[in-house]
Amino acid sequence: MQLIEINKARYRKHLNRVIAGCGVGLAVGSLAISQTLIALFPDESGSHFHWNLIGVAITSVGLAWLLHKYRTHTFMTEVVYVWELKKALNKITRKMAKLKAAGREGNADALLAIHYSYAGSRLLWQLDDNLITMDDLAIKQAELESVAAQHNVTLNVEDYDASILKQF
C-alpha cells in the first residue's frame, strides 16, 4: 500500500458524515427492528433485552454490508484509504518488537517496515490533528535513520510491500 496525500478537509467531512450516518442508522434501525419484534412477540415479564439485542445485531450487520457495498464509491475514497492504512499499520505494530530486533541487526526489510510505519503514522496523525506525538515520532525516525546509515541501508517508503512482514 503506497502512502498518498489526502485532502484533509474532504477526508474529515466525509468521515464525519459516515460516522453520523452510521450512528443515526444504528439508532433508528435497531429501534425500529426491536420495537417491531416486541410488538409481534410481546413478553409477559416485560423484559425485551433479547429483542433489543437482535435489533442492534441486525442493524449492525446491515450497516456493515452497506459500508462494504459502497466502499468503492468516490465519496468513500479517503475514508476507505485511511481504514486500509490503519489496517496495514496494525499489522506492522503487531510485529514491531521482532522488527526492531531485526532492524538493530541491520535487516533491511525490518528497517523498511519500521520506516513505513513511521511515515504512515505521521500521515494519520496529521489527518487527525494529533500533533502532540509528532516530536516523539521525529526522535524515533532519527534513531531509525541512524541505524540504517550504520548498516548502509537506504529507506524509501515506496519500496515497502506488506509481504516482507511474513518473515517476522
UniProtKB/TrEMBL annotation:
Keyword Membrane on this protein? yes
Q: Does the keyword Transmembrane helix apply?
A: yes
What keywords tag this UniProt record? Membrane, Transmembrane, Transmembrane helix
Identify the InterPro entries for this entry: DUF3087
Q: Which Pfam families match?
A: DUF3087
Q: Where are the transmembrane segments?
A: 18-42, 48-67
Look up the domain of life of the source: Bacteria
What name goes with this protein? Answer: DUF3087 domain-containing protein
Q: What species is this protein from? A: Pseudoalteromonas arctica
